[in-house]
Design a protein that fits this description.
Elements: H1 7-10, H2 27-41, H3 53-60, H4 64-77, E1 80-83, E2 87-90, H5 109-130, H6 133-151, H7 157-170, H8 174-185, H9 190-199, H10 202-220, H11 224-242
Antiparallel strand pairs: 1-2
Helix pairs in contact: 2-4, 3-4, 4-9, 5-7, 5-8, 5-10, 5-11, 6-7, 6-10, 7-8, 10-11
Length: about 260
């Protein structure tokens, strides 16, 4: 404080208010907060079924993918349960004490894939211009790893990551390579894992491998436009697979 200022002036300066950091909140978290509050108030009681995904999206004025991410977040917390062929049912009024913690700023799966799409499509085009025979062989090796993982009954996450990172490596740009790896590793959060539990299976991963082969073929043929388009199609279809109808119950067979 300036000692030369008059007392009546300094006395009028208000005491500074403590400032707290403002955390940005993803759209799906805002939706989840609204639904959680309704469940807690008893608007949707334990044992009842939530409105259909499309109805919630219309009422809230948001996209169905955002609603889906919100519902998955509530499932991770233990508030709702996805019952194939039956819908989303409320199973608890408060989050389970043992539920994994979702970071407030954690990105949703659709947002992550869209970010990857913006970056990796162009990297595939660059790879088509510069890939050596050895680097193309490395991409095919990554696909073989995916095949081996599926054959062993595991989801081919390791081979999939290897493939996308190796495409990025061909560009020879360290920051972009790091970005691709970090974006891919964002799938290692409870929200993305739960989404994968519902929508990733051997059939969906087989489709992904076929799409990868299209990317490799375009890179090997040194066709940047085709490589860009193939990577765009692959990541677009990845989003579509997460946006498909909820898995249905397996029909019972009669003896």
């Amino acid at each position: 404080m300036n000692p030369n200022w008059p007392d009546h002036f300094t006395a009028s300066i208000p005491h500074p208010m403590p400032i707290q950091a403002v955390e940005p909140k993803r759209l799906y978290r805002q939706i989840a907060d609204q639904l959680r509050a309704l469940i807690r108030r008893g608007e949707y009681d334990v044992g009842t079924r939530l409105p259909a995904e499309r109805d919630l999206a219309a009422r809230l004025g948001v996209s169905r993918p955002s609603v889906r991410e919100a519902l998955i977040a509530l499932e991770v917390e233990g508030l709702v349960e996805v019952r194939p062929g039956s819908g989303i049912h409320v199973v608890a009024r408060d989050p389970a004490a043992s539920a994994p913690r979702l970071e407030p700023t954690a990105f949703g799966p659709f947002e992550i894939i869209r970010a990857r799409q913006l970056i990796e499509c162009e990297l595939a085009a660059v790879a088509a211009l510069h890939a050596t025979k050895e680097q193309v062989a490395g991409l095919r090796e990554a696909l073989a790893v995916m095949d081996d993982e599926l054959a062993a009954g595991a989801m081919p996450i390791r081979g999939d990551r290897l493939f996308h990172v190796r495409v990025a490596e061909i560009a020879g740009n360290g920051p972009l390579l790091r970005t691709v790896g970090e974006l891919y590793d964002m799938r290692n959060n409870p929200l993305f894992e739960q989404m994968g539990h519902h929508f990733e299976n051997e059939k969906s991963w087989r489709k992904a491998i076929v799409e990868h082969r299209g990317v490799v073929a375009a890179i090997a043929a040194r066709k940047p436009d085709a490589a860009r388009a193939a990577m765009h199609q692959h990541l677009e279809r990845s989003q579509e697979r997460f946006a498909e109808a909820w898995p249905q119950a397996t029909p019972e067979t009669t003896p």
